[in-house]
Structures are given as C-alpha cells and as structure tokens.
Amino acid sequence: MNKKVSLFSILVIMLLSSILITISLGSVPIPLGTTAKILLNKLPAIDIERTWNIVQEDIILSLRLPRIFLAMIVGAMLGTAGIAFQGVLRNPLADPYILGVSSGAAVGAASAILFVNPASFLANIAIPLFAFIGAILSLLMVFGIAWRRKGDNVSLILAGVVVQSFLGAVLSFTITISGTKLKTIVFWMMGSFASSSWREVLFLIPYLALGFLIIYAFYRNLNILTLGEQAAQHLGMSVERVKIILLVAASMLSAAAVSVVGIIGFVGLIVPHIIRILVGPDHKVLIPASCLAGAIFLLWSDTIARTIIPSMEIPIGVITALAGAPFFGYLLKKKRDKIC
Amino acid sequence: MLNLSNVPQNKKVFELQNVSFKYNGKLILQNISLQIPQGQITGILGPNGSGKTTLLKIISGINKPSQGEVFLYKRLIENYSRKELARHIAFLEQNDTISLPFTVREVVEMGRYPWLKPLSPLKTKDKELVDYVLECFDLTVKQNQIVGTMSGGEKQLVSLARAMAQEPQILILDEPTTYLDIGHQSMVMKYLYKWHREWKTTIIMVIHDLNLLSQYCDYFIVLDNGILIKNGVREEVLSKELLTKIYKTNLLVVKHPDTGVPQFLPCFNNKF
C-alpha cells in the first residue's frame, strides 16, 4: 500500500515539475521562476507582483499551456489504451498504432473532413465518430486476418502491419484527392500539436475520463485474463463481453486522440512496458500509472519536437517513432518465443 | 450381482440424459447417459480422442450438448449463469499458464473472483480463506514468489489452490499430472486427496495414468470413440478384458502391494 502511494506521489511530482520545466522551454526562453510566478498568479487568491511583461504571459498562457495540456491528455489516452490492448489481447506488443487502430481512425477522420466542413459544428461529432468507426473496422480487419492463431503474438502484429500499410495507402490517396483540404488532412500522417488550443483540450477531456473509467472498472478482469481466456471463463467471467467492452473503450480513446492530433505511434507500447517493470503486473495500479506516465512521456516528446531544432518543429510522431521503433524491435527480439 | 453403477438418487451431482455433441459435423460424443456421484473421486478414462475432455467441458457448462440434457443438482445446467457455475464448479485445464509475473498469493486470490462484486476489494473473510488454502497446500512460505519462476509441479499446486479458493463443491481436472515427474505427480495427488477427504469435494478428472487413476478414484467412466463403454466402481470397470480391448494392447494386472488395488503394466512379450 505504501509503495503504491509513494509511486503515485512520484508520478504526480514528476508530472507537475515536467509542466513547469517544459513550459519554460521554447524559442523564447522564459526563466523557470518567471513561469512559476505567471502560473501562480493565475490561481485564485494568490497575488504576485508583476516582474514579467505581457508577451511572456501571453506565450505561457495562450500558446504553451494549452499545447502542454493537449500533449498530456493525448499521452494519457494513448498510455491507457495501450495497457488495455495489451491486457485484453494478452500481447505485450499491442499498441493502437501497431495494431493499425490509429491508421483506421485517421482514415475515418480524414474522410469525415472530406465531406464535412472542419469548422462547422457538425465536424465536432462527425470527425471523432468517423475516427471511431475507422478504428473499430481496422481492429476487425486485424482480427479477421489473425483469427485462429490466437496464441500467436507475432501473427497478430503482422496482421496489424498489413492493415496499417493498407490504410496508410488509403490515407495517402485521400490526401492526394482532397485538393484544397490537403493541409488539414496531411498532419494525420505524422501527428502534430502545432495548432493546439483550449478548445481541443476541452474536447478531449470527456473522452479521456470515460475511457479511463471504463478500463479501470475492469482492472480485476484484466488481471484474471492473464491466466488465459479459458481459465477466466471457468472463474465465471463473461470473457467475450469483457473483451468487447475493453476493446471498444481502448479504440475510442485512440480514435478521439487521433481525430485531434493525428497518428502518434508507440506511446501505448513503451509506457505500459516501463510501468510494468516499475510496479509489477497488477492492473489496479498499472492503469492509473500508465495514464500518468503516458502524459509525462508525450509532454517531453512534444517538448523535444518543438525545441530540438531552433525555429523548426519536428512532427511529434517522428519523435515517438524514433524512440518506439527500436524499443519495439528490442521487445520482438526478446519476447517473440514467450507469451510475455 | 448387485448393480453398483447406478448412483443413489440423492447422491448425484451431475446427470446426463442422452447427451450427444457434434463439432464441425463430427460426432464427438454419442448418446451418453450417466450420473456422477457426490463427494467421490470420479475418473474418466479412454484412449486419445475418445471424447474425455469434451465430456468435461459439457458437464462444466462450457460446451452445450448438441442433443440431450445435463443436470447439475437436478437443475438444467443452461439455467445457471457463468458466475453461479463458478461458485459450484472449479475447472482446471491442462497446462495453465500465466502471462504476467503475479505472485502465488495474488493468483490464489484470483480464485475469489466469482464471489466478488465488480470493483469491491477482498474482504477479511476472503483473505482468511486464501490464508487457509495457502496453508493447506504448504504455500504460505512461498506466497510472495512469482508463479512463472516455479517448477511445473509447484505451478500445478498453485493452480489447485486457486481452484480451491473458489470454494467449489465440484472440482474438474483435465490431466492434472501430465508433464510432471513421478515425485511431483504424487505430491499433487497427495494434496488433492487431503483436500478431498477434508471437504468432501466431488472430484471429476481425466487422467491418463491408469495406476494413479486406480489408486485414487472411487467411480470410473470409460469412453471409447465418443461412446460410453462402461461406468461403475473399480471392480466392475477396471478389468483386464475391458482395458485390453479399449487400449488395444495387452496389459498385465497386478495388485498394489500396499493398497491392494489393481495396477496395470504393459506386456513386453514382443520385445524379445
């Protein structure tokens, strides 16, 4: 119990200090102390003497803060989705990107943009809805291909690769024919936080909350599924129902994230792995810890993406893939013969 | 001669009436009617592919018979929910594996699942029961070990302990001693029998080792090619003629020097 409390305290402290540090970094460097003062001044009942100018305040509050929150929320969504996919599929290599779910969501979202004006109110519903449908369809395609080889981890991943390359081609095709809308769609290929605002942050919060609560409510089922589906059934679990609920929740999290920021791969792979090494196999701890760690991971990835080359921004998907692909290769080499 | 194969009415847990099971158009079980006695150890035997595991899956409610009816305590098995069944029946399949590094205690606690409401933690009563089960299987000192790192026999004990944490009245086992060496085989059977004597748990198991089967079981069901060949007590079923016929090999029958039950040895006439 004490171990868990200290773990979550460490994660929360890491998250808060990461916010403070990353918000100070950027093309206009702002001292940590000034950042802290600007943020504290915004809290009710705290009044701090102004030692900063309005431009600094504007950069912190209107540019960097929403972006940082968006990165954290998306990271939390992908980390939670990853732990759910890995748990349900009993596959340590599963991740929304590797399974092709992100590509499916991107194709869905892109086709919604083709038909609906992205600025209209309808787009608020149509884009995430189409992304969700795309995610579910891609998951069904992967299962269709890998079916009958349930115990085989690698064939599920291969099926994910097949679906992902097919949908990648569909996405490229959609971008090519989209003409003037090209610029709106193109960032789905590599993911981006460049156009972050509070609007996107508020839009994603309900999805994160709903997806997290559903997945967390099934933590015991995820633990028992590690015994195998048959054993879980013998223990009285309605295995098919539980699997469907969890896969839908994880797909929803991935689809909502993709519909706002595009495809960001490997977060759902790396984060649960590191957290499992740190806290062990119990999903009661793993799920909230992956959620927090996903936020920290993507916050730093985005900070690197926007600061490593001055006056230039690297797509966030490139950064996570640079870290994630070698990690995936390492896991594949280490674990291909074992279940985990 | 007395007809011993009919189980007294009030002492049966399962009753099968004309049960058949088809899979992919192939008849796996044919028109099986039998009863399984309460509080005893029932052994199911027969050559590979005779439908033994399928029979276990039918009585545990995992597979639905294509024809016929299965009753658990005189109530149709389809009328039980999955969770209700798990409160009556614990089922251990062959080679149970666990995919994450859980400890012995955590795995045994998973056996409480059918008794827990979603999200509710283990209560004191559940924890005491887990303590008791760990004690019975001499796993108390090993309760913080990672199951994945243990030997095959120890893993099997942990699985048994998990099944017992379900508080089942009926325990169904598919090949509980396969892949174990003779030492671990006797160890697993010893703990199983100890629990059975203490709690009068009805045990139904498929077991290939005829000698273990003869030693531990009270009631026997013989299947061959999906057909019920014979069911009854040891004297009726474990005869040289019957076993020679279904296994299509010559067997020598000797009495176990300690217990007097029949033991079976293959004949090596052809070897020389």
CATH top-level class of chain A: Mainly Alpha
Query: Oligomeric state of the chains?
Result: heterodimer
The CATH superfamily of chain B is known as P-loop containing nucleotide triphosphate hydrolases
Number of helices of chain A: 14
Strand content of chain A: under 5%
What's the CATH class label of chain B?
Alpha Beta
Strand order of the largest sheet of chain B: 6-7-8-3-9-10
Write down how many β-strands of chain A occur, each being a DSSP E stretch of 2 or more residues.
Answer: 0
Q: What portion of the residues of chain B fall into strands of 2 or more residues? A: 25-35%
> How many separate domains of chain B?
1
| Largest sheet composition of chain A | none
- How many individual helices of chain B? 9
Q: What do these coordinates show?
A:
- The complex is a heterodimer of chains A (340) and B (272).
- With 340 residues, chain A is mainly alpha-helical.
- Chain A has a single domain (69-335), classed as ABC transporter involved in vitamin B12 uptake, BtuC (Orthogonal Bundle).
- Chain A is 75% helix and 0% strand.
- The longest helix of chain A has 35 residues, at 54-88.
- The mean pLDDT of chain A is 89.
- Helix content of chain B is 32%, strand content 27%.
- In chain B, helix 4 packs antiparallel against helix 5 (152-165).
- Chain B is globular, with a radius of gyration of 19 Å.
- Chain B starts with 11 loop residues before the first strand and ends in a 6-residue tail after the last strand.
- Chain A binds chain B through residues 90, 217-218, 220, 223-224, 226-228, 230-231, 233-238, 276, 280-282, 339-340, and chain B through 60, 62, 81-87, 89-93, 96-102, 106-107, 110-111, 113-114, 116, 118-119, 166.
Key traits:
heterodimer, A: 340 residues, mainly alpha, ABC transporter involved in vitamin B12 uptake, BtuC, 14 helices, globular, B: 272 residues, alpha/beta, Rossmann fold, 6-stranded mixed beta sheet, 4-stranded antiparallel beta sheet, 9 helices, 12 strands, disordered N terminus
